[in-house]
Amino acid sequence: MSYKVNYSPLLRAHTPPARQCHKVCDVAHGSSMKGQTLLSQADGAVLCGSDPPDDSVKALKAHLWSEETSEMERLLGKCRIRSQLVRECMAECLGVYILILFGCGSVAQVTTSQDKKGQYLSINLGFALGVMFGVFVSRGVSGAHLNPAVSLSLCFLGRHPWMKLPFYIFFQVFGAFLAACTVGLQYYDAILAYSGGKLTVTGPTATAGIFSTYPADYLSVWGGVMDQVIGTAALLLCVLALGDQRNGSLPDGLQPVLVGAAVLVIGVSMGSNSGYALNPARDFGPRFFTAGGGWWWVPIVAPCVGALLGTLIYQLMIEVHHPPSPSELQTSCQEANEGKTGLEMEGGEPDCVKPT
Amino acid sequence: MSYKVNYSPLLRAHTPPARQCHKVCDVAHGSSMKGQTLLSQADGAVLCGSDPPDDSVKALKAHLWSEETSEMERLLGKCRIRSQLVRECMAECLGVYILILFGCGSVAQVTTSQDKKGQYLSINLGFALGVMFGVFVSRGVSGAHLNPAVSLSLCFLGRHPWMKLPFYIFFQVFGAFLAACTVGLQYYDAILAYSGGKLTVTGPTATAGIFSTYPADYLSVWGGVMDQVIGTAALLLCVLALGDQRNGSLPDGLQPVLVGAAVLVIGVSMGSNSGYALNPARDFGPRFFTAGGGWWWVPIVAPCVGALLGTLIYQLMIEVHHPPSPSELQTSCQEANEGKTGLEMEGGEPDCVKPT
Amino acid sequence: MSYKVNYSPLLRAHTPPARQCHKVCDVAHGSSMKGQTLLSQADGAVLCGSDPPDDSVKALKAHLWSEETSEMERLLGKCRIRSQLVRECMAECLGVYILILFGCGSVAQVTTSQDKKGQYLSINLGFALGVMFGVFVSRGVSGAHLNPAVSLSLCFLGRHPWMKLPFYIFFQVFGAFLAACTVGLQYYDAILAYSGGKLTVTGPTATAGIFSTYPADYLSVWGGVMDQVIGTAALLLCVLALGDQRNGSLPDGLQPVLVGAAVLVIGVSMGSNSGYALNPARDFGPRFFTAGGGWWWVPIVAPCVGALLGTLIYQLMIEVHHPPSPSELQTSCQEANEGKTGLEMEGGEPDCVKPT
Amino acid sequence: MSYKVNYSPLLRAHTPPARQCHKVCDVAHGSSMKGQTLLSQADGAVLCGSDPPDDSVKALKAHLWSEETSEMERLLGKCRIRSQLVRECMAECLGVYILILFGCGSVAQVTTSQDKKGQYLSINLGFALGVMFGVFVSRGVSGAHLNPAVSLSLCFLGRHPWMKLPFYIFFQVFGAFLAACTVGLQYYDAILAYSGGKLTVTGPTATAGIFSTYPADYLSVWGGVMDQVIGTAALLLCVLALGDQRNGSLPDGLQPVLVGAAVLVIGVSMGSNSGYALNPARDFGPRFFTAGGGWWWVPIVAPCVGALLGTLIYQLMIEVHHPPSPSELQTSCQEANEGKTGLEMEGGEPDCVKPT
């Protein structure tokens, strides 16, 4: 680790162009509390120009006491991947990993502590906050689908390219599988102690339900399909409403919280029949851990149907009826004119006040 | 599905005016994470002007990998309804549907799982978050009344036209009825298993309470009326305070969350007497499902009285006393002058510093 | 009710100056969803200038279908009180009323339903959300003290005039008393049924604890004083940190929510000893309802001591050490110079970079 | 307390530069509702200039009724410490104090009330909201690490100077110790009554678990290490995602709330094995109160490993892959050019579009 760059804060004091530099550096310093702009702060210092160090003891001391660019961040920076698709796949994978880590973790805690360290509401909170942090981890990179049924709906609406769909789905399932492994590792002792060493899918000390969803005893297959379709449709209705800018704006950063709230309310109101999977990846990834029964296809197929249904309901009841925004008016103008000859172009605009 | 428009991203590279276009498209691309502006992104691409496709393989590939306007969104766009009243009725209907779907769903879950998958607090959360998402779904279109008593109060204050009142009320009740049907469908197996096939209004396995509210055994009719009047008045007090810009501003998007919190606190503090209907539509719509007793009129009449009472209290204690804003001063100026002859108009302003 | 002003929307169409008006009105219409600016919308229409009505049937129809200024709002406007002190007293009274209505209501619900419709956490939520809505109701008018101990601390810091203190305290206690009456009315049947008609302060069906706080059996008086001092000091620490702009900013509207969260966490972590009164008004107002014992002075004296203590801790550990803001630098400059002769005024500024 | 300074509002009238002051004062007055800028309001008033007092009764009256600078705030201002390090240490100390006061307080409440005044979820809420308010108290001064493992990770990333690390750690542990003392004082009577006077680490009425964490009976040491590593890594993943501006922005003031939510979800999903210490200071400070066993080193070592692990995962999967921001591009430009001779400087920019 070399300290070459570290001398600069010290030296700025006696170099003439340092004057206006202070301002820049102070600003960077002021925002340094968020812990994210420290890199650019130190880099800002570099930009201010500085002479070679003439007092390395002082400089070392300054280095040890002030926040500055580290070799570590530089080293990490060398690992940067530029492929957008790889970045998106990693983000989806990590997002679903977080979701399942917290979600299935809360089921494991409630199950193995026999309701002493949490109740059904804890599980609802675990999945809700798991989804919220999954969205926070991946929103800026992949758009935080975290759910094959959501990816499918967005492809269907034309808001996501179909060719990316298999990649997204694979890494969503893979992230869920990794998270199930982690939960299994973290609760290994607890699951053994709780089940007496016998890992079973049914019975009083069944632990398969920690990882995947199973229907209640009374539930028919048709009832389970209905349950999943209605739940996923309700989820999509809420998520689309939250993202519909023309219905009302949201402060940046509140959307992931409210997506979590949607998962919370679905868990509170639609969780008892079959465990609100609503997400093929959430259910299928962890199921590799446990023996499946005849139920496995329901949390894969029904959420996709439900997601498309919820999308259509919200579109047909609210979103498509919004009056067009100015930019859309202009566009439809353009489109209308594309059917005509190029000569009509300049005279075309008056027709376009009402979009076709 | 034709790919005509899809060639454009490819072709922009060799057309001269594409230069300044990139900026526009990049901006659109940057905001594409919210999933709502993708349509305009692709449209923006169209605006950039492009030559006819000369390489359809490349173009098809580009299409499959990039996000762009879909035929689907165009198809959905054709369903657009322009009538403001129809849009408002659909929004109220869908908003109340969401509210009851989550609210009554949570009662069904707690009841049929016999408190194993939720307790009274889950029901409080179900209605609170149900109201929140009901508001998010409808706020930009109809103003999210979701409650005939609220619509009535707003008409009374002159903030909503009286003629729209019956339409709003009908579609609020209709949305609640549809939601009760959906909850009945989703919990069909569970309700049958819980009640042993006997659907009853009273008794140890009564399930009518999933859909409508019933008073506690000890409650007199007069006590029930008081309960509903106080609860609805408290709701209106809170909602009016949240919307009173001169009392303090709120970030856009926080208001629906806090309206949900108002419903939560009322459920936590005024729920045990008669189930905090507070909303004629919430109670009357689902009641078609179940046999009614002598109680049905209380959750219809008392919330309306309470809503008017709460409105009056907040108005008379807080809102009417706010010092007038500059625009109101100007208006009252104008009004004062309207009583005079037109000639006094230009000299009228000095009198108007203090509104009459 | 006269419809004079209602013609204007209709008439604007054929008056020449209506052109640039449309913009104004559309803007007003766009913001009309919040339900608070509808008054100014209609007034805006008035400002656009219009001819006398020539078709009153059409005008009446337009009136009935559009949102506009009502006679009701005009009538309510006549009740406006201009005295700042009276407005502040009403706001404090209504704010504490809301706080106690929800807080004591939640205790009544949990007590009379014997933990079936809520548990201790519901009571924590009832007081937390009660404080939150109490703040929302009064924040813009009185600053939302809602607590004599808070008013006292602010007077002590010089942030509130001492002369207003008795008025604030009286109306805080009065609001709490009114709320206790309301809770008593709302839960009259429930309390009678629960207690078998015997209203007692102690015993298995005691109901005095619904209204005031009582210490746990094991608690010594000194332990109770400590409990209240620590609790109120923690509350003030949190509230002062939330309001300390130089420690970090908060979006408008989040502060009341976080004050509610402070009350929630105190209820969750300091509630079991003596019921976290923390507020002389919260305890003393409702106590008129019930027989008091030797405990009554603790929730009055100890919160005041605790509030001063918390204020001092936050001041001495965080707030006084913030580097001075530019405006304070200027002021201390000025003050330093006031001690000198006026002639030194213009030369005084260089000394003032470091405040004295 | 003398009222000398109170005449000043009166005296301001006869100084010439008072004119442009009015504006300043109005601004200050407008923001006075938040209760934190009242000091500058009154100071602003001093600048506005007024005649010498000719009627000290009036002046006194004005003083008593209006909000103005107090002797108290001036007195407190004299205690201001200018050393940045001392301020940061005090902030870390107070922040951890708040965290442990609420966190361990909630454990004490649930334990001594035997689950009657709270359940495991209350403890989750106590720690979550404790962390949140700890962050609010210290975020603007020290950056709110509140955890030696977090400080270590930030030093490792080069975002915090290594030399400050021992100071931070000492005051974090010291704050936790003080808080444990306070909880011990507040729950002294309750702990004695609950344990029958015998303070034990194990057994049915053990109270050591109020202060420090102990593993579940079934947990192996290796399982405990895994549990702590996974939990702390998950915490760091969430916190780094919340602070990663290039992944998505957050409104100021929401970040502390969401850090609290991260602690909540970890408590809900990873709390039953060994009590989610995740923080050497949280566990080691209070442990001085109680007898330790062979477990004490796990909550010290494992969180540090976990924090570094979580940091690396987030860095390598999300943050390092963000496309560079414009300012970073410029910097890497500069750096690339530093390797060349100074003459190439002006020609160096074109190479720099792609950072090296």
Automatic annotation (TrEMBL), chains A, B, C, D:
<feature type="transmembrane region" description="Helical">
    <location>
        <begin position="254"/>
        <end position="276"/>
    </location>
</feature>
<comment type="similarity">
    <text>Belongs to the MIP/aquaporin (TC 1.A.8) family.</text>
</comment>
<feature type="transmembrane region" description="Helical">
    <location>
        <begin position="167"/>
        <end position="188"/>
    </location>
</feature>
<dbReference type="InterPro" id="IPR023271">
    <property type="entry name" value="Aquaporin-like"/>
</dbReference>
<keyword id="KW-0472">Membrane</keyword>
<dbReference type="GO" id="GO:0016323">
    <property type="term" value="C:basolateral plasma membrane"/>
</dbReference>
<feature type="transmembrane region" description="Helical">
    <location>
        <begin position="89"/>
        <end position="108"/>
    </location>
</feature>
<keyword id="KW-1133">Transmembrane helix</keyword>
<keyword id="KW-0813">Transport</keyword>
<dbReference type="InterPro" id="IPR000425">
    <property type="entry name" value="MIP"/>
</dbReference>
<dbReference type="InterPro" id="IPR022357">
    <property type="entry name" value="MIP_CS"/>
</dbReference>
<feature type="region of interest" description="Disordered">
    <location>
        <begin position="325"/>
        <end position="356"/>
    </location>
</feature>
<protein>
    <submittedName>
        <fullName>Aquaporin-10b</fullName>
    </submittedName>
</protein>
<dbReference type="GO" id="GO:0015254">
    <property type="term" value="F:glycerol channel activity"/>
</dbReference>
<feature type="transmembrane region" description="Helical">
    <location>
        <begin position="120"/>
        <end position="137"/>
    </location>
</feature>
<feature type="transmembrane region" description="Helical">
    <location>
        <begin position="296"/>
        <end position="317"/>
    </location>
</feature>
<dbReference type="GO" id="GO:0015204">
    <property type="term" value="F:urea transmembrane transporter activity"/>
</dbReference>
<dbReference type="GO" id="GO:0015250">
    <property type="term" value="F:water channel activity"/>
</dbReference>
<feature type="transmembrane region" description="Helical">
    <location>
        <begin position="221"/>
        <end position="242"/>
    </location>
</feature>
<keyword id="KW-0812">Transmembrane</keyword>
<dbReference type="InterPro" id="IPR050363">
    <property type="entry name" value="MIP/Aquaporin"/>
</dbReference>
<dbReference type="Pfam" id="PF00230">
    <property type="entry name" value="MIP"/>
</dbReference>
